[in-house]
Amino acid sequence: MRTNRQIEIRRCRPLLGTFVEIQAIGTNAADLEAAVEAAFLAIAQVHRLMSFHDPESDVSRMNRDACHKRLRVHEWTWRVLKSAQEFSRNTDGIFDITMAGQLMKWDYLPRYGADSGAGSWRDIILEATNHVRFRRLLLIDFGGIAKGFAVDRAVEILKRNRVSAGIVNAGGDLRVFGSASQLVHVRHPAQPRRAAGAVRLRQRAIATSGIYFARTKERGGYVSPMLDGRSRRAARDLISVTVAAANCMTADALTKVVFALRRQAAPMLARYSADALLLERNGGPSWIFHPRCDTSRQT
Amino acid sequence: MTKSEFAFIALPISALVAPSTFAVQYLTVDQAQRAIFPGKSLTAAPAKLAPAQRKAIEQASGVRVLHDEQQVWRVSGGGWFIVDEVVGKHEFITYAVGLNANGSVKQIEVMDYRETYGGEIRNENWRAQFVGKTSQSPLKLDRDIKNISGATLSCRHITDGVKRLLAFYEIALKRS
Description:
The complex is a heterodimer of chains A (299) and B (176).
Chain A: E1 7-15, E2 18-26, H1 29-50, H2 58-65, E3 71-72, H3 75-90, H4 100-105, E4 124-126, E5 131-134, H5 144-160, E6 165-170, E7 173-177, E8 182-187, E9 195-201, E10 204-210, E11 216-218, E12 221-223, E13 227-228, E14 233-234, E15 240-245, H6 248-261, H7 266-271, E16 275-279, E17 285-289
Chain B: E1 8-10, H1 13-17, E2 21-25, H2 29-36, E3 42-44, E4 47-48, H3 51-61, E5 69-75, E6 80-87, E7 91-99, E8 105-116, H4 124-128, E9 148-149, H5 156-173
Antiparallel strand pairs in B: 2-8, 3-5, 4-5, 5-6, 6-7, 7-8
Helix pairs in contact in B: 3-5
């Protein structure tokens, strides 16, 4: 048997409230299995730390106690918190992880204690490394950026375990690595079980946000979990936003910004060297953005 | 330096009109057994549920039991391997659960995932086409759609399925 023959394995587990799929290409089956297992363990770790549902997670501990005392959190939780704060600062609060109370009210998240009132990302105080405090009662939920972060960790582990190429897809937040490019289909915004088209990706992450699966009726009108942090209003348009960036957490966060700002998000996208695609209700693209300079910036 | 290849390729209208199905087979039963219990030997021990057991499982888990047969294997040295399926409005998922000797979940692996547009999944004929399918007889579905960006359906059905299987363990497997 030739030893340099490329083999591919593809596995899927329910994690992070969605289906997480890992495809890995290499030359040794046992090594690939071990690498994929290690990557799933990292994703499971992110799930344990950042689940809104699990009372033992860092996120639940913060929601319960961070307004009473300074809390120590896991290094990974800390990294997501820091990135979330940076996204909030750079988007003037369009991106905001403190809207879980609103999501709870519309049953996108399980009921959990009292509503958090009017706090915002500005009430999250990052103190010494790995330590956090809330200035008031807040309910935070990392949402998609935790998924993106998990994808990034999994890719890091696969690479470290000498997997030559692969894809990690956490419920539509995905990242491609290795030399080959991959075709990634994008759902039709109004008919999400159909693909509207595809984009080709190489060594890049992509995230798509739409409200197709999540839109629900609330007091006669539609609501969705896609909130603009400035107005706390829910997006109602059946459009979708796809963003490609160097890492998956950034791609996911930026979809929310483009949802809120559409074309005005261009400077933000440029800042992160990210591409964007806006699909209208009819499945056609109404805007495609490419950053002018190179896209190799790693964040 | 990685140059971006980001360009949108629209699908032709015909592709949009035809109902589409996204389907992947990840693992056969054999592969799932080796993935969850490497190096162990497994013995088939299919279980048939009496009406009273079905009812007890439903009461304990709060989840409906649709089949009175359950595909179960006993693992050498303790533990169980169970193959189960869940059907949602637009999805059909076969998955395997490995239980440790004490009944706790060791690992869950999705074996088959199919997502489809329209009501086909509720239709018995549509479902019957999957019976007896193995990796040797792959279904002819749109094999070109390999990766989709954009939310998948939630995995709530699997969460419920595992809850049901844990009740099944308590009621039908634990003392066997």
